[in-house]
Design goal:
globular; 46% helix; Rossmann fold; 2 domains; 5-stranded parallel β-sheet; binds D-glutamic acid; 9 strands; 250 residues; 4-stranded parallel β-sheet; alpha/beta; single chain
């Protein structure tokens, strides 16, 4: 049985946890929500690196064999530092799903929704650079999306107005494929799909991250599939937001 540590600024990483459990149903999961410091989106890289270190120590102390940085913003700001400082620990990060979007678009325009930190990170900018000659890539910060998910507001007039404000510019630019570049956003995916209409494809990168986790566990020879399954939730703030979203992924 592998002990899989997962962390995010809040409940968003549960969209990755949900896919991990589908791919690896018999492992021990340790989920850390850093909700006392959420959102990460506008914080400095140094701040997020410090949080990443603290949380890594907690997860390793609990026996994690591998750490999934289930947060695009923390991946952009801190995964390179964490890998350098903990060379023995496998870290899995979030990939902006620009490649499948670029391969699948028919209009030739793809939209990316992410936090400000992710959009200015070198990882995203490099990926963008690989595809921008072939497709037009338009970006928008999902302004207020993280706060909606942390409050458990996933539908209704307030969620609709907030989501529409960031989504509409991408649709107006002709995007037929929308990449969810923040792990909180998949909890708004039904609403995003309804507002965008049936012609628009929305991509959640979590299943690809789960597949990558399976590959790395195999590569490292960490045994899986033996059970029993367990999950423990940890948080730096109040439990409510995590428990609300956890009910959806159980
Ligand atoms: N869920 C995170 C991400 O994937 C962080 C969002 C935030 O805290 O701003 O980027």
């Amino acid at each position: 049985m592998a002990s899989i540590g997962i962390f995010d600024s809040g409940a968003g990483g549960l969209s990755v946890y949900r896919e991990l459990v589908k791919a690896l149903p018999l492992e021990r999961y340790l989920y850390f929500s850093d909700n006392a410091h959420c959102p990460y989106g506008e914080k400095t890289a140094a701040y997020i690196q410090e949080r990443g270190r603290t949380i890594t120590e907690v997860l390793l102390g609990l026996g994690a064999d591998i750490i999934v940085v289930a947060c695009n913003t923390a991946t952009a700001a801190a995964i390179a530092t964490l890998r350098a400082e903990y060379p023995a620990v496998p870290f899995i990060g979030m990939e902006p799903a620009v490649k499948p979007a670029a391969l699948g678009t028919r209009s030739g325009v793809i939209g990316v929704l992410a936090t400000a930190g992710t959009l200015k990170g070198s990882k995203y900018l490099n990926t963008r650079g690989l595809y921008q000659d072939n497709v037009k890539i338009v970006e928008h910060v999902g302004q207020g999306f993280v706060e909606l998910v942390e409050s458990g507001i996933l539908d209704g007039p307030e969620a609709e107005a907030t989501v529409r404000a960031s989504l509409q510019p991408l649709l107006d630019a002709g995007a037929d494929t929308i990449v969810l570049g923040c792990t909180h956003y998949p909890f708004l995916q039904p609403l995003i799909e309804r507002l965008a209409g049936p012609e628009v494809k929305v991509i959640d990168p979590a299943p690809a991250v789960a597949r990558q986790t399976v590959r790395i566990l195999q590569e490292r020879g960490i045994p899986t599939g033996e059970g029993p399954f367990s999950v423990d939730l940890y948080f730096s703030g109040e439990p409510d937001s995590l428990e609300r979203i956890f009910k959806l992924v159980k």
